[in-house]
Design goal:
single chain, alpha/beta, Rossmann fold, 2 domains, eight-stranded mixed beta sheet, four-stranded antiparallel beta sheet, 12 helices, 24% strand
Length: 331
């Protein structure tokens, strides 16, 4: 990578203290993201994707605690900022689109009021200027009849329209970094395509860096420049999107790729065997070893480090192998 770094996350750890014990939700996540690029973070439900996203904006609430790490934006570690400094960063420098717009929007306030509040809380504009900017944003994200949308309540909008409103709010102040957490959940495929195209267009227009949280590898293939694969709270593989799909090095990544349907349906689906480890009792060795057909003695004794296997391609595996060999193992 040679562009301007927009976001750098170093050794992020998050735990949740529960009556049953301490849940290790995120364990040492690190990555760097350039302006105008998209990082896709993928993995099974419960692997730590959304907790990582929320942690970057300090939105983790008790019993969750960020125990270690740095989230650097504009040279500042967001985890060290006071509440007032953090308030100025949220929305203006880093914003987030949540996966369920119906629960993220206030049900008793009009769309215009909610988008206007984002603008007026950071910019010193008149009421008319704020309204004009709000209408321009609603138009920019492709909402029809923005004047009518402005006066409607969230329940009067479709799921796709509500998600576009969330994108408008997130991009109101042209943040350097946009976190999109499952932005197309529960939307039909046509609306999904429209939302993703909108994110791509806005990324190009504003040079915004996007962190895309998803479990859908199809979305990753169409959107991401780089991909981080998470398993049991850790990144197990990180590379360009091309490398992830053409030359995956971790058996979990390969298992994910071979568990999705393909055009033509010539191959039978190959589900990932077994279950993820209990986050209350993460092992000291490779967490994927019990589910990996190629696991050896070393895999059950020592946790692998995330290390390069080629330029820009990092894998946390004692025995990273080519896709063809992985396919032979998984069949």
């Amino acid at each position: 990578m040679s562009g301007v770094v927009a976001l750098r996350v170093d050794d992020l750890h998050v735990v949740f203290k529960t009556p049953a014990g301490i849940v290790q939700a995120v364990n040492g996540v690190s990555f760097t993201l350039e302006a105008g690029r998209t990082l896709g973070i993928v993995g099974e439900s419960g692997c730590g994707k959304s907790v990582t996203a929320l942690s970057m904006l300090r939105l983790i609430e008790p019993p969750g605690t960020i125990t270690r790490g740095k989230v650097r934006l504009n040279g500042h570690n967001l985890l060290d900022l006071g509440n007032e400094q953090l308030r100025r960063v949220r929305g203006a420098e880093m914003a987030m689109v949540f996966q369920d717009p119906m629960t993220s929007l206030n049900p008793v306030l009009t769309i215009g009021k909610q988008v206007s509040e984002v603008i007026s809380s950071h910019l010193n504009l008149s009421r008319m200027e704020t309204r004009d900017k709000t209408l321009a944003l609603l138009t920019k994200v492709g909402l029809p009849n923005p004047g009518k949308i402005y006066n409607r309540l969230p329940f009067q909008l479709s799921g796709g329209q509500r998600q576009r409103v969330m994108i408008a709010m997130a991009l109101a102040l042209k943040p350097r970094v946009l976190i999109a957490d499952e932005p197309t959940t529960a939307l039909d495929v046509t609306v999904q395509a429209q939302i993703l195209a909108e994110l791509n267009r806005l990324k190009r227009e504003f040079n915004t860096a996007i962190v895309l949280i998803t479990h859908d590898l199809g979305i990753v293939a169409g959107m991401a420049d780089e991909v981080a694969v998470m398993y049991a709270g850790s990144i197990v593989e990180q590379a360009s999107a091309v490398d992830i799909f053409e030359n995956p090095g971790h058996p979990y990544t390969c298992a994910l790729l071979y568990s999705i349907p393909r055009l033509g349906g010539a191959d039978k689906l190959k589900p990932v065997p077994g279950q993820p480890p209990d986050p209350l009792e993460l092992p000291g060795h490779c967490a994927f070893a019990p589910r990996c057909p190629g696991a050896g003695k070393q895999c059950r004794q020592k946790k692998p480090r995330l290390e390069p296997i080629s330029t820009g391609h990092m894998v946390a595996c004692h025995h990273p192998v080519a896709r063809q060999a992985q396919r032979a193992i998984l069949i």
